[in-house]
Automatic annotation (TrEMBL):
Keywords: ATP synthesis, Hydrogen ion transport, Ion transport, Transport. Residues 15-76 form the ATPase F1/V1/A1 complex alpha/beta subunit N-terminal domain. HAMAP family: ATP_synth_B_arch. GO terms for biological process: proton motive force-driven plasma membrane ATP synthesis. Produces ATP from ADP in the presence of a proton gradient across the membrane. The V-type beta chain is a regulatory subunit. This is V-type ATP synthase beta chain. InterPro entries: ATP-synt_VA_C (IPR055190), ATPase_a/bsu_AS (IPR020003), ATPase_F1/V1/A1_a/bsu_N (IPR004100), ATPase_F1/V1/A1_a/bsu_nucl-bd (IPR000194), P-loop_NTPase (IPR027417), V-ATPase_su_B/beta (IPR022879). Residues 133-352 form the ATPase F1/V1/A1 complex alpha/beta subunit nucleotide-binding domain. The keyword Transport applies. PANTHER family: V-TYPE PROTON ATPASE SUBUNIT B. Coiled coil: none annotated. The keyword Transport applies. GO terms for molecular function: ATP binding; proton-transporting ATP synthase activity, rotational mechanism; proton-transporting ATPase activity, rotational mechanism.
């Protein structure tokens, strides 16, 4: 049996990085253990190999380390998490260590957090929907099992409140008896935000179906790079080993990308757009593409990442690249937020590309797709009429245009707006949709058949 070597001298320390020379038989991604004299032991991960020189990133940071006060031992294993059914209801830090006082997780299964790519041939096409209890999402941007649907937000918008509400309320479609779980991940959040999430899930009783990963803003930056991978590894275990339908809610992915940029800068890599590494696209894809369904397994992973757009710029590299990989987006509006409308979802630039395959007869209701198309069409026309009203005044609009203005106000205040603790099932949401559509003359409902209008119009 080969004796484990311990290296007593560190060549150099640069930010979160440690350089060692004369190392033999090391592997990329291997975990190292750093024993600090008169201090707490730390973990690191090898991120570069050049001949016998190793560069490792230290999860807890290199503060307090020197070339002579620490020793390094190579474990010969990648970063792994121990998995057990007992993880449900538990809370962990950014690299999977319990932080809820419930003790360590015991189990025989160890999972590499880097995961395994899903073979495209093994993928099952996503069907059926996950009900979030939020009218504008369930009716117009329906979340389908196995989908990747990001929420594009901005600084100061209530994306944390929306994330917590979705976790509390999310469930499988009403007729399903399948097992459901949520993996909630907070990346780079403040302490009061972390406390808000914990209290929210505990008070609502949702905590029993939730696995939480909390990476705080004052945690070492390197931990942040591993946090989403720990969460997705947990989701893979729950979905493909235990048969759960798992919803992964992750906020804020922009903090992850900022950490990636900082580590890339420390590694002196050539930067790309706005200083982000050139591999940002493939790195994000390695996260997003872990969501989906398999022909050979019962469970599914549905991914709902939340990212804040710097300066509300949807063309920024993070939302821009995310849009190429995912199947739609939910966009939050600063204007609606300023009008005290919660959740401030701007439905016009929002889109769910898989929505058509998980709604309608057999899933929601037969008329749902047509009602959604009609709402989009009418609300789009409202924007044009509002622009005209700013020029000539609302009183000089035609009677039909004034009805459209009334529809727009009702759509935002009655359909889009709902309380933080209000959960609406799909039938309730469609009822409200018909109430606001009935403000318009029947002749304007040109996306609906005469039979549907006669059956549901409330005028």
């Amino acid at each position: 049996m080969e004796i484990a070597k311990e290296y007593l001298k560190i060549d150099s320390l640069e930010g979160p990085l440690m350089v060692l020379s004369g190392v033999e038989n090391a592997s990329y991604g291997e975990i190292i253990k750093i024993r600090v004299k008169d201090g707490k032991d730390r973990l690191g991960k090898i991120i570069r190999l050049e001949d016998k020189t190793v560069v490792a990133q230290v999860f807890e940071g290199t503060s307090g380390l020197s070339a002579t006060n620490a020793s390094v031992r190579f474990t010969g294993r990648p970063f792994e998490l121990i998995m057990s059914p007992d993880i449900l209801g538990r809370s962990f830090d950014g690299i999977g260590r319990p932080i809820d006082g419930g003790g360590p997780i015991y189990g025989n299964l160890r999972y590499n957090i880097n995961g395994r790519p899903i073979n495209p041939v093994a993928r099952k096409y996503p069907r059926d929907y996950i009900e979030t209890g939020v009218s504008s999402i369930d009716t117009l941007i329906t979340l389908i099992r196995g989908q990747k649907l990001p929420i594009f937000s901005g600084n100061g918008l209530p994306h944390n409140e929306l994330a917590a509400q979705i976790v509390r309320q999310a469930k499988l479609s009403g007729t399903s008896n399948d097992k459901f779980a949520v993996v909630f991940t907070a990346i780079g959040v403040k302490h009061d935000d972390a406390d808000f999430f914990r209290r929210s899930f505990e008070d609502s009783g949702a905590i029993d179906k939730v696995v939480m990963f909390i990476n705080l803003a004052d945690d070492p930056i390197v931990e942040r790079v591993s946090t989403p991978r720990c969460a997705l590894t947990t989701a893979e275990y729950l979905a493909f080993e235990l048969g759960y339908h798992v919803l992964v809610v992750m906020t804020d992915l922009t903090s992850y990308c900022e950490a990636l940029r900082e580590v890339s800068s420390a590694r002196e890599e050539v930067p790309s757009r706005k200083g982000y590494p050139g591999y940002l696209y493939s790195d994000l894809a390695s996260l997003y593409e872990r969501a989906g369904m398999l022909h050979s397994r019962e469970g599914s992973i549905t991914f709902l990442p939340i990212l804040t757009m710097p300066n509300d710029d949807i063309s920024h590299p993070i939302p821009d690249l995310t849009g190429y990989i995912t199947e739609g987006q939910i966009v939050l509006s600063r204007e609606l937020h300023q009008d005290n409308i919660y959740p401030p979802i701007n439905v016009l630039p929002s889109l769910s590309r898989l929505m058509k395959d998980g709604i309608g007869e057999g899933y929601t209701t037969k008329e749902h797709p047509d009602v959604a198309n009609q709402l989009f069409s009418c609300y789009s026309k409202v924007q044009d009429i509002r622009s005209l009203a700013q020029i000539i005044g609302e009183s000089d609009l035609t009677e039909t245009d004034q009805r459209y203005m009334a529809f727009g106000r009702a759509f935002e205040s009655r359909f889009v707006r709902q309380h933080l603790d209000e959960s609406r099932d799909i039938n309730k949401s469609l009822d409200i949709a018909w109430e606001v559509l009935s403000i318009l003359p029947k002749t304007e409902l040109d996306r609906l058949s005469t039979e549907i209008v006669e059956a549901f119009y409330k005028g």
